[in-house]
Design a protein that fits this description.
Largest sheet: 5 strands, mixed
Order of helices and strands: HHHHHHEEEHHEEHHH
Radius of gyration: 20 Å
Number of strands: 5
Structural class: alpha+beta
Length: 300
């Protein structure tokens, strides 16, 4: 067992990102999601935020027929301006040259999006769409990057990815998050999407799948299984590390027993206030406010 601490507060909600975090490394999940220990800002994560916002602005600020490369780059400029003075950007400590490189690479990602689809043909009915539903008493929440209505009237869930595309054998597991979004759409909007899509901008790869009955059953079972494992780990204080290639990006490596660290020292080293937050009865601060249709749901 990695820690003597037991009866940690169970997160108030489940989401695709939490499922991924727990299955990737239960110990890192405990530090980040359960105890809310602070982490340094991530350049990769912030770049993802920037590009997602730029694509959101492309669809909200530019009507069909005007979503050109120039418009997409102007949308990125607007998103970049919104980031100025934001703590996460300042916390990266980028010098002028590094800021330029950060922005240039973001421009490349936006350009590559345009190689994957023609945004003028997209009929987005939801952007950054907040959804919340119940699965056997478990609140599941998530934010869908884009919900489209296709020519035949069916729905499509689209999720942008700014990291590298997975190997072929990993593609199925990467679809689990968007399948969960499809399950939430069916529960809250009364319509199951006919397709879910992952758009890997950097590698210009699209991974698509149909949310079949079998896929939906498997998605539901997996989500509830992960939730049961989270509850058990919180009760027993048993969050074990799962060493992998992701360890090189982990902010908690020095407290991981796989690297000679002591998990129980993390809270004191990173801030005792985070532990009191995790033990409080307040709602999960990392999750969005639940609404059936988010504030950026576009009209037909």
């Amino acid at each position: 067992m990695t820690s003597p601490v037991t009866d940690l507060a169970v997160p108030s909600t489940l989401s695709p990102s939490k499922i991924t975090a727990f299955t990737s490394c239960p110990l890192a999940f405990r530090f980040s999601v359960v105890e809310h220990l602070p982490e340094p800002p991530s350049a990769a994560a912030l770049k993802g935020t920037l590009v997602h916002r730029a694509l959101e602005l492309l669809f909200t600020e530019y009507p069909p027929g005007s979503r050109s490369r120039d418009a997409a780059q102007k949308a990125l400029d607007g998103a970049w301006q919104e980031l100025q003075g934001v703590e996460e950007l300042d916390g990266l400590g980028l010098d002028d040259a590094e800021r330029i490189a950060f922005l240039v690479d973001s421009r490349v990602l936006v350009d590559r999006y345009l190689e994957l689809e023609d945004p003028d043909t997209v009929r987005a009915i939801g952007l950054e769409l907040n959804l919340s539903t119940e699965l056997n008493g478990v609140t599941v929440r998530g934010i869908i990057d884009r919900l489209d209505e296709l020519d035949d009237g069916s729905l499509a869930v689209v999720d942008y990815k700014t990291g590298r595309a997975p190997r072929a054998e990993q593609s199925r597991s990467r679809l689990s998050g968007v399948h969960l979004y499809a399950l939430m759409c069916e529960a809250e909007l009364g319509r199951r999407p006919s397709v879910v899509r992952l758009l890997y901008l950097r590698d210009r790869i699209v991974i698509s799948a149909a949310p079949t009955d079998q896929a939906m059953r498997g998605t539901r079972q997996r989500a509830l299984g992960v939730w049961s494992a989270i509850e058990r780990a919180c009760k027993e204080g048993d969050f074990r590390p799962n060493p992998s290639n992701l360890c090189r990006f982990c902010a908690f490596q020095e407290f991981c027993p796989s690297f000679g660290g002591v998990p129980s020292l993390a809270a004191a080293a990173l801030g005792d206030s985070a532990v009191s937050t995790a033990r409080s009865s307040e709602p999960d601060a990392s999750a969005p406010e639940p609404t059936a249709v988010g504030p950026r749901c576009l009209s037909a």
